[in-house]
Amino acid sequence: ELEAGSVTQPVPVLVPDGSDWAELQCRAQGVPGVQLYWEHWGQPLHPDDTRFQEKQWREGPWTSSLLRVATIGQERSRLRHQFQHSDSDEFRSQWQFQYLNWAQSEHWEQNRTLGTFVCVAQSPLGTARRHLQLRLAGTGL
């Protein structure tokens, strides 16, 4: 059992302007006990990726996880730069290309810290997921 959260819609987590990191929280309980881990872009987070730091602990029947996501400031700077130059024809054609090939953009690959994160609670009896969508406040992204 995951603590309250929408099963059908990701829970939005807004990162205020000026923040270089965000924290995502997840809590679950189960019998037998649950293990928590995080996924992003359909893959479990790699333990050596310095953009993500996880702390996990138990409180009675609950297992809690706090995921700190770094380099948010780099994402915000990149988006501001793109939008400031949105009037040029060169930018428009580049933006369309990046939009159509979003996952293939080299720069996007380096800083993929936005989007939907999934907290996965797993026990021998099954798996439950909670989706949290990390967005920059004031940008719609």
Automatic annotation (TrEMBL):
Record protein name field: NPHN protein
Gene name for this UniProt entry: Nphs1_0
